[in-house]
């Protein structure tokens, strides 16, 4: 497996140590001053190292995007009505919103709890430049929920960065997903968050876009640079009308039969960490996560 990644068993969320809120970033960040009092502040904290199960509520913005009931990609809650994911998750699939659901508040793909919520999607909006630049640019999509979610200890949004935000040196950043720490099942992590700790709030800096075989750690993993798209995200939210009220938000019932088979049955949500040690020269839409292995030292530079 790639450096910083550990394989796990069972179906529990795996992770490392949280150390950084969908609004704007806190004062002191380059380029802005607004911040939500809710986003990026999980109720469950603590230091959890790679390979151990993390607690429910530790990454409360992480969502599972489902197509006809099966997990296909990660997604990130940015406020009560909207999530972000990557546009390529919808390639070769129907874009009819009724085919999609979002699972929130869960740390396991197919183990439901009273805190879990499944919400129908009312709109899917991919960036207009994606088709022109695919597969290398504008890989971002917005999902509007059919019904707003209530924030709980298990469902909290990540904060959006201000446009063009620069991270301080040695910032602590984390990636999460149900398969990314397992080389056999990492494909369903596209659209998942890369969040960074800033003044005790977690800011969404990247979305997992694409990469090479994780068994070859010298190759980069590519993340959509969310700071490049902040203005577009806010404009879409401002111009898009609210959906008609429905009862779309309901707790998931206890399963009475085997869940739809996917490549990720019983897979656990996991996390991996990196410190920002430098900057790479890449197009503004994307960032590479470069993984290096030096003896027993594991680190990520992006």
Question: What order do the helices and strands come in, and which of them pair?
Answer:
Blueprint: E1 14-15, E2 52-53, E3 62-67, E4 70-77, E5 82-85, E6 100-104, E7 117-126, H1 130-133, E8 141-145, E9 172-177, E10 193-198, E11 201-211, E12 221-225, H2 230-239, E13 250-251, E14 270-275, E15 286-294, E16 297-301
Antiparallel strand pairs: 1-2, 3-4, 3-6, 4-5, 5-8, 6-7, 7-8, 7-13, 9-10, 9-14, 10-11, 11-12, 12-15, 15-16
Could you please describe the fold and organization of this structure?
The N terminus and C terminus are likely disordered. The radius of gyration is 17 Å and the shape is globular. The chain is 5% helix and 30% strand. With 302 residues, it is mainly β. The chain has a seven-stranded antiparallel beta sheet, with no helix packed on it. The protein has two helices and 16 strands. The protein has a single domain, classed as Thrombin, subunit H (Beta Barrel), CATH 2.40.10.10. A hairpin with a 2-residue loop joins strand 3 and strand 4.
Can you give keywords for this protein?
302 residues; mainly beta; Thrombin, subunit H; seven-stranded antiparallel beta sheet; six-stranded antiparallel beta barrel; 30% strand; globular; disordered C terminus
Query: Rounded to an integer, what's the Rg over CA atoms?
Result: 17 Å
Kindly give the count of domains.
1
- What would you call the quaternary organization? single chain
CATH homology superfamily name = Trypsin-like serine proteases
Extended strand count: 16
Q: Please tell me the CATH architecture by its name.
A: Beta Barrel
Largest sheet: 7 strands, antiparallel
Structural class comes to mainly beta
Residues in helix, %? under 10%
Residues in β-strands, percent: 25-35%
């Amino acid at each position: 497996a790639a450096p910083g990644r550990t394989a796990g068993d069972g179906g529990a969320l795996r992770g490392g140590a949280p150390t950084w809120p969908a609004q704007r970033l806190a004062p002191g960040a380059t380029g802005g001053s607004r911040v939500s009092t809710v986003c990026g502040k999980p109720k469950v904290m603590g230091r959890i190292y790679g390979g151990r199960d993390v607690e429910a509520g530790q990454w409360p913005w992480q969502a599972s995007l489902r197509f006809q009931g099966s997990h296909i990609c990660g997604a990130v809650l940015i406020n009560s009505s909207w999530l972000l994911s990557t546009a390529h998750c919808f390639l070769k699939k129907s874009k009819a919103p009724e085919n999609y659901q979002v699972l929130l508040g869960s740390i396991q793909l197919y183990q439901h709890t009273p805190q879990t919520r499944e919400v129908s999607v009312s709109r899917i909006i991919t960036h207009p430049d994606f088709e022109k630049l695919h597969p290398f640019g504008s890989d971002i999509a917005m999902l509007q929920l059919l019904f707003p979610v209530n924030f709980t200890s298990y469902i909290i949004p990540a904060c959006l960065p201000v446009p063009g935000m620069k991270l301080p040196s040695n910032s602590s950043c984390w990636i999460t997903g149900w398969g990314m720490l397992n080389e056999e099942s990492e494909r369903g992590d596209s659209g998942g968050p890369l969040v960074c700790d800033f003044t005790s709030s977690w800011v969404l800096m990247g979305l997992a876009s694409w990469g090479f075989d994780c068994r070859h750690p010298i190759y980069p993993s590519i993340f959509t640079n969310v700071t490049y798209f902040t203005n577009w995200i806010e404009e879409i939210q401002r111009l898009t009308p609210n959906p008609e009220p429905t009862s779309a938000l309901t707790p998931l019932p206890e399963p009475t039969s085997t869940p739809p088979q996917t490549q990720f049955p019983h897979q656990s949500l996991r996390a991996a960490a990196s410190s920002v040690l430098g900057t790479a020269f890449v197009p503004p839409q994307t960032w590479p996560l470069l993984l290096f292995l030096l003896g027993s030292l594991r680190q990520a530079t992006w």
